[in-house]
Amino acid sequence: MVVLTGGVGGAKLVLGLAAMLPPGDVTAIVNTGDDFHHLGLSISPDIDTLLYTLAGKANREQGWGRDDESWTFMAALAELGGPSWFRLGDGDLALHVVRTAALAAGATLSAVTVDVARRWGITTQVVPMSDDAVATEVLTAAGTLPFQRYFVERRCEPVATGVVFRGAADARPAPGVVAAITAADTRAVVIAPSNPYLSVDPLLAVPGIRAALSAATAPVVAVSPIVDGRAVKGPTAKLMREFGFAVDERTIADHYAGVIDGLLVDARAPAADFGVASAAVDTLMNDLDDKIRVAHAVLALADGLRR
Amino acid sequence: MVVLTGGVGGAKLVLGLAAMLPPGDVTAIVNTGDDFHHLGLSISPDIDTLLYTLAGKANREQGWGRDDESWTFMAALAELGGPSWFRLGDGDLALHVVRTAALAAGATLSAVTVDVARRWGITTQVVPMSDDAVATEVLTAAGTLPFQRYFVERRCEPVATGVVFRGAADARPAPGVVAAITAADTRAVVIAPSNPYLSVDPLLAVPGIRAALSAATAPVVAVSPIVDGRAVKGPTAKLMREFGFAVDERTIADHYAGVIDGLLVDARAPAADFGVASAAVDTLMNDLDDKIRVAHAVLALADGLRR
Predict the structure, then answer these.
(1) For residue A239, which of A274, A193, A202, A198 has the smallest C-alpha distance?
(2) Roughly what angle, to the nearest 10 degrees, separates helices A109-119 and A90-104?
(3) Is B235's pLDDT higher than 80?
(4) Which of A122, A262, A299, B64 could form a disulfide with A117 if both were Cys (CB 3.0 to 4.6 A apart)?
């Protein structure tokens, strides 16, 4: 199984698939358009969310970052007049510091990620979409905002008119990305219920990934992030409205038209023609059973769609 | 007043002088030979000790680092297989991260230090000996060890045969260093009771500093780090023995011969001819009263020695 994924929502599905399948059978290809430099540190939020989630270290109450976290660094940073808009937990910092040092020493993001995953006993392959820098920027009435400025500092408040992926045209898929998607023994390629515009589109903007999806022998299925006319989390619905689309499953299907063979929608969605095969299940993923239920459903949908 | 100083012991004397004199009347010129890069961070242990001590943030029980500290970063670093020999507290990290980012953006160590001091309400001028990199290395039977490897990782255990200051010959005194030492209104230049070989010699190795001490109109007085035949802290006595010297005040006086006009020794020292003027006082500095007592004594000695 290959999953194209952003952060929190996608990580839940990856966890469900990983729990259902033999160790090592899931490859998560992760958005790095959110990656940025902050205080000299190289931060990869979606990669981190995958790693924390798969290692059982994710902070569930908070919805981001790691568990058993403390905040002494941020308090001391404030005393120094440092920026407070991006919260860095003391434990979380270790990952950023280690990665920054490794990248500075010439390691690739892929290699660093493999090292951390191995250290933490993660058997799922966690692969960045690219080892080259791609920076998602949101075009808004308030100007062009780097992703984290839009998402964290401005809490997605500015009205968006578009999204660009700076550097994407020159980025190469990370080693293993195209091979995983196109491998003859890949059973399905799943687009996670991540934000289509902010989390999945950057992946599709990396030259070679869209072509790999076309060339794949495995069916490509997306899980809709829409539940009951809303997005479970984040600005997906808000962006859909701002871009002039209905907040429904059809908009998701249209967005991925030409890429996907099937769409898994939430059971609450009204019956409709999505232009591709579809199936429905309760897609809310709170506990592990939920995640496994969605994983089963997406796999069943894909298995009925072999190309 | 100008003080040439290393870390903990010197910071105590600087604090005593600062408490005794009007705000802004003390300039601490600080050893940076201990500075090093660790995990991509620029760490300046003696500067930090001065800043924490003068800001009232020093961790007294521990003897280094800052108070109200937590250690989540180190625990997370261990999970990542990172190095554990140098302990970085969560709050302490903020200073290293902010400084590293500022240096990477082109700021000098002097400028960063001024910023932090201002932020923390420190009125004492804290000036690095140089903005250029100088790296103290200890020659030992186990090979040449960078300072922190010798001091922290190896706990000063290898027998030392000498000390070198890599980069010193090309280093320039930081802005203000020579001016502070040679200013007509400087009342005294004090060499703090820091380790002569590891903390003060790097300062004297920066071209221009020794000449400034010769040219100074103010008397130059040293405070002996020896109390009752031992060093209060650190490897001073061990190094004296390894270098073939007696662990006494005379060795200190000889070490600074040609540089100092006077030596303040501990009251427990046997009377002796030090080759320079001297005075004696209880030099152990535990509480603030102790620090002020030593500050008074060193100033009184200096005031009797106007060049």
Answers:
(1) A198
(2) 130
(3) yes
(4) A122
- Token digits of residue B11: 């910071």
Alpha-carbon distance of B301 to B260, in angstroms, equals: 12
Q: How far is A197 from chain B (nearest CA, A)?
A: 32
Please write down the long-range contacts of B65-72, taking CB distance under 8 Å and 24 or more positions apart: B65/B89, B65/B92, B66/A76, B66/B91, B66/B92, B68/A72, B69/A72, B70/A70, B70/A72, B70/A90, B72/A68, B72/A69, B72/A70, B72/A72, B72/A89, B72/A90, B72/A91
Give the pairing type, strands B160-166 and B226-227.
unpaired
Q: Where are the domains of chain A?
A: 2-303
**Alpha-carbon gap: B124 to the closest alpha carbon of chain A (Å):** 17
Of B40, B72, B119, the CB nearest to A100: B40
CB A263 within 8 A of CB A249: yes
Confidence of residue A142 (pLDDT cuts 50, 70, 90): confident
What is the pLDDT of chain A when averaged over all its residues? 96
Give CA–CA dist B38/A263, Å, rounded. 49
- Residue type at position B97: V
- Give ipTM to 2 decimals: 0.92
CATH fold of the domain at B2-58+109-303: Rossmann fold (3.40.50)
A2-303 adopts what CATH topology?
Rossmann fold (3.40.50)
